[in-house]
Amino acid sequence: MTSKKQAAVPPSLSYELYPPATPEAGEAVLRTIDELEATRPDYVSVTYSGTPARRLASIELIGHLTSNTRLRPLAHLCCVGETRASLDLLVRQLVALGVRGLLALRGDLPQDPQAVRGELPFAQSLVELIREVEARHGAALAGGRLAVGVAAYPNRHPESPSFLHDVEVLVSKQRSGADFAITQVYFDPAHYVRLLTAARAAGVTIPIIPGVMPLGNIRRLERLAGMTGVRPDPALLHRLETASGEAERRRIGVRAAAVLARAAFDAGAPGVHLYTFNDHRASIEVIEEIDLPVARTPAAVPA
Ligand code: FAD
């Protein structure tokens, strides 16, 4: 890596996977996992959705990771629509599968105002619940402290009154027992630096890991903008729209992601979390592009 401000501990590397929805996608994700395992990530996160079928798919994917690979899963868990009792049970089920790291999230609110919102209003409450479950079951639960991560926002969360409100929320999540944060996607390197600076000034000491997405797919960028409120860089969109084909779009996306990752390391990022969309190629190209050392020791993330 060319960064001047290299951390004393080698940077952490992690990937996000989502549970496959079809048998064909299931085979593809197994290939992706094989390829990613060879890069020796510190952990692999698995996204979560509350619908019964998707929840089962997440649990199956996590079971595959713990039973058949050397990869350490970080299980996403959302509190929206759940009761305290259902979450308590889920935490214990995940730990029984071998999970030692959880990403505590609220999840997106249901569109239907009549839909059940659940007993916990915020991700912060889920962090507290996880710590309560852990305290109640003690060493019998996980044989050690669970690593609990949370989301952080380089750009204002769509429901939030301000970026600084989100920073205060991050302070509260840390106070409730979060060990580290992973950022939402962002497109401007300055936005990670702004978050890091504001969070440190507000008293956040936990690692804030930049979530970086290879940015080569126009449809995905637009869908993501709808979901997160984060608008892609118009210059990048133009380059993608005028690219000659898929291979060139991937190269453009990989380079743009590498720029984000390098800038984050220069600002002192403790690692990088790559949103893979279950496609290993672009993510592996990003880590080759930034020349990330592979002989890493785990940072302050799931042990
Ligand atoms: P919260 O931290 O609860 O924030 C939600 C809103 O409430 C924000 O506007 C915040 O400002 C406000 N708020 C929070 N706490 C307080 C408080 N104490 N007082 C006042 N206001 C408060 N979604 C999925 O469905 N599945 C996934 O697997 C998933 N993985 C994700 C992974 C990452 C790294 C990230 C960044 C997001 C992920 N999401 C996932 C999306 C996430 O669920 C949404 O962004 C959701 O809208 C907010 O989740 P949160 O955990 O940040 O919620």
Small molecules held by this entry: flavin-adenine dinucleotide
Give me the count of strands. 9
Q: Provide the succession of SSEs.
A: EHEHEHEHHEHEHEEHHHEH
Helical percentage: 40-55%
Which class do the helix and strand fractions yield? Answer: alpha/beta
How big a fraction of the residues is strand?
5-15%
**What is the average per-residue confidence, as pLDDT, rounded to a whole number?**
91
Largest sheet: 9 strands, parallel
State the end-to-end CA separation.
25 Å
Walk across the major sheet and give the strand order. 7-6-5-4-3-2-1-9-8
Query: What form results from the Cα inertia axes?
Result: globular
Count of alpha/pi helices: 11
| Integer-rounded radius of gyration | 18 Å
InterPro entries: FAD-linked_oxidoreductase-like, Mehydrof_redctse-like
Protein name: Methylenetetrahydrofolate reductase
Pathway: One-carbon metabolism; tetrahydrofolate interconversion
Catalytic activity: (6S)-5-methyl-5,6,7,8-tetrahydrofolate + NAD(+) = (6R)-5,10-methylene-5,6,7,8-tetrahydrofolate + NADH + H(+)
Overview of the molecule:
Helix 3 (84-96) crosses helix 4 (123-137), helix 4 (123-137) runs parallel beside helix 6 and helix 7 packs parallel to helix 10 (246-266). The protein has 303 residues and is an alpha/beta fold. It is globular and about 55 Å long. Helix 1 (23-37) links the parallel strand 1 (12-17) and strand 2. It contains 11 helices and 9 strands. Helix content is 47%, strand content 13%. Strands 7-6-5-4-3-2-1-9-8 form a 9-stranded parallel beta sheet. It has helices at 23-37, 52-68, 84-96, 123-137, 139-142, 163-176, 189-202, 218-228, 234-241, 246-266, 280-290; strands at residues 12-17, 43-46, 73-78, 101-105, 147-152, 180-183, 208-209, 211-212, 271-275. It binds flavin-adenine dinucleotide. Flavin-adenine dinucleotide is lined by residues 47-49, 76, 78, 103, 105-108, 122-124, 151, 157, 159-160, 165-166, 169, 172, 182, 184, 211. Flavin-adenine dinucleotide (FAD) is lined by residues 47-49, 76, 78, 103, 105-108, 122-124, 151, 157, 159-160, 165-166, 169, 172, 182, 184, 211.
